[in-house]
Amino acid sequence: MSISVKNISKSFKTVNAVDDVSFEVKEGELFGLIGPDGAGKTTIFRILTTLLFADKGTATVAGFDVVDDFKEIRNHVGYMPGKFSLYQDLTVEENLTFFATIFGTTIEENYELIKDIYVQIEPFKNRRAGALSGGMKQKLALSCALIHKPKVLFLDEPTTGVDPVSRKEFWEMLKRLQQKGITILVSTPYMDEAALCDRIALIQHGKILQIDDPKEIVKHFPTTIYDIKAANIYKLLLALKEYKHSYSVYPFGEFVHYTDKREDFNPQELQQYLEANNHQNIKIEITKTTIEDTFMELAK
């Protein structure tokens, strides 16, 4: 295993940031930690990159113990934290050269590894990092994390605050890096990105809710989900929550995702209830289950 985490716990005063977490990541796998802010993702990343000690449990990265072999781990991993942390007063090229020098290498030596990413920012190599756009900062940070050819790459919420086009490009880059044999552990609060991983761990309040292939997680959702729409979405949401047979109700884009307590649920009955409450332009249809649906169910 490239990463092995066994019963890791970490508390900050009265807050249990990580609570008895265990998971494994195979070599060459793209593994996702999926959960909202405050779920414990960053704390796990800091423990695995030797920036923080766990209160309990053990972990290894690239075959090295995170406590006993912390110096070795730092030579074999690349880490891109959630907040842009490069030197903003240095240029793109100066930042990359600095990180290459720290690890005893050069840009030229490992250029093939970062080429697909770096060519997009190379025209701006003399621009200060602080003056780059969000997407360009993201590409520079990833290049700096890769310049020493790490075995394992840690990406903590790398697409937060980045435009949709840059998000898409970033995940395409990750897939290409994976093909080069790099193990990637990525965290994200975006449920739609979960489907892009080989396997995911859904995490909430420091606890792992479920670990599996994204398709398998969705496949085992226990009930049918309905997309419901009406002229006034807010009033629709309130009406559905008050409906005596509702099991779960929450907004999902322009629709409301609804599940019913009954096995013999009849959508026509619900339609009549909504019409009786003066709702107009009602639309009710079965929809596909998403990772977000599964997460909401597990997090109850």
Fold and architecture overview:
- By secondary structure, this protein is of the alpha/beta class.
- It has two domains: 3-216, 3-Layer(aba) Sandwich (Rossmann fold), CATH 3.40.50; 225-298, Alpha-Beta Plaits (2-Layer Sandwich), CATH 3.30.70.
- The protein contains eleven helices and 14 strands.
- Strands 6-7-8-3-9-10 form a six-stranded mixed β-sheet, sandwiched between helices.
- α3 runs parallel beside α5 (134-146) and α4 runs antiparallel to α5.
What's the short version?
This protein has 11 helices and 14 strands.
What layout of secondary structure does this protein have?
Blueprint: E1 3-12, E2 15-25, E3 30-34, H1 41-48, E4 56-61, E5 64-65, H2 70-76, E6 77-80, H3 92-102, H4 111-118, H5 134-146, E7 152-156, H6 164-179, E8 183-188, H7 191-194, E9 199-204, E10 207-212, H8 214-219, E11 225-229, H9 233-242, E12 246-252, E13 255-260, H10 267-276, E14 283-287, H11 291-298
Parallel strand pairs: 3-8, 3-9, 6-7, 7-8
Antiparallel strand pairs: 1-2, 1-4, 4-5, 9-10, 11-13, 11-14, 12-13
Helix pairs in contact: 3-5, 4-5
